[in-house]
Amino acid sequence: MTAITVVDYGMGNLHSVRRKLAQVGATAEVSGDPAVVARAEKLVLPGVGHFAQAMQNLGASGLGEALREAVRARGVPILGICLGMQLFAQRSEEGDVAGLGWVDADVVRFRVTDTLRHKVPHMGWNQVAPAAPSPLFAGMEPGAEFYFVHSYHFECRDPSLAIGRTEYAYPFVSAIQKDNVFGVQFHPEKSHAAGEQLLRRFVER
After folding, report:
1. Range of 176's domain?
2. Core vs surface per residue 83-117: b (16+ CB within 10 A) or e
3. What integer pLDDT is reported at residue 19 of this predicted model?
């Protein structure tokens, strides 16, 4: 079985992610120990909450440096989920702070004009249209739906980073890939069969 470490930095529904990974064939452990994260074989960075607080938690715990050691120095595959994906960016409007800086993108709040039709946060089921080939979406039906809960989204300066896009008031990037770094704005652990299929592709890659 593939061993995956789910990073505990105090911001996420960690155990639902761990259970879903176990269901698709992974050996998954939750850890907030920088030494465990630094030597991990494969990582998942979930997240629910405020960007600035998340970056503060990563810095104060030593997990930010451990993630850099694993992902940047050793090339360990990582999947960021929701806030976890946003942390890969250069900067976020949520707190106006720098992110990990692994992806040439910023995180911005939804700029919605019709607030009757499009509530913020964007919450519920929505389609993800593949934007480029990726192992995460291999074999998946076009227009598969996933579960979203978020008020901020990615803006990529390099369009080739986007592997999935979603329409909510306007098109936004809902999945990214850069080498060993993968990210999804939605919650695959809450997205039933499509979410399980995506997590299985990450486990098996």
Report:
1. 2-204
2. bbbbbbbebbebeeeebbebbebbbbebebeeeee
3. 95
**Main-chain dihedrals φ then ψ at residue 70, nearest 5 degrees:** -70, -50
**Residues with catalytic annotation?**
82, 187, 189
CATH label of the domain that carries residue 111: 3.40.50.880
User: Which pTM was predicted?
Assistant: 0.96
Burial status of residue 205 (CB atoms within 10 A of its CB: 0-12, 13-18, 19 or more): middle
- Number of helical (H) and strand (E) elements in the chain, helices listed first: 6, 14
Asked if the model's pLDDT at residue 1 lies above 70, the reply is no
pLDDT at 137 over 80: yes
Task: Kindly report, residue by residue over 74-105, the tens digit of the pLDDT.
Answer: 999 999 999 999 999 999 999 999 999 999 99
- Cα separation, 172 vs 23, in Å, equals 30
Under DSSP, the state recorded for 16 is H
Given 3-state DSSP classes, what are the helix, strand and coil percentages for the chain, each rounded to the nearest 5?
A: 30, 35, 35
* Collapsed DSSP state (helix, strand, coil) of residue 203: helix
Residues contacting 125, CB < 8 A, separation 6+: 145, 146, 147, 148
Does the pLDDT at position 116 exceed 90?
A: no
* Tokens linked to 190: 């809450």
Provide the number of structural domains found in the chain.
Answer: 1
Distance CA 48, CA 17 (A): 12
Mean pLDDT, residues 164-174 taken together? 97
Which one-letter amino acid corresponds to residue 72? R
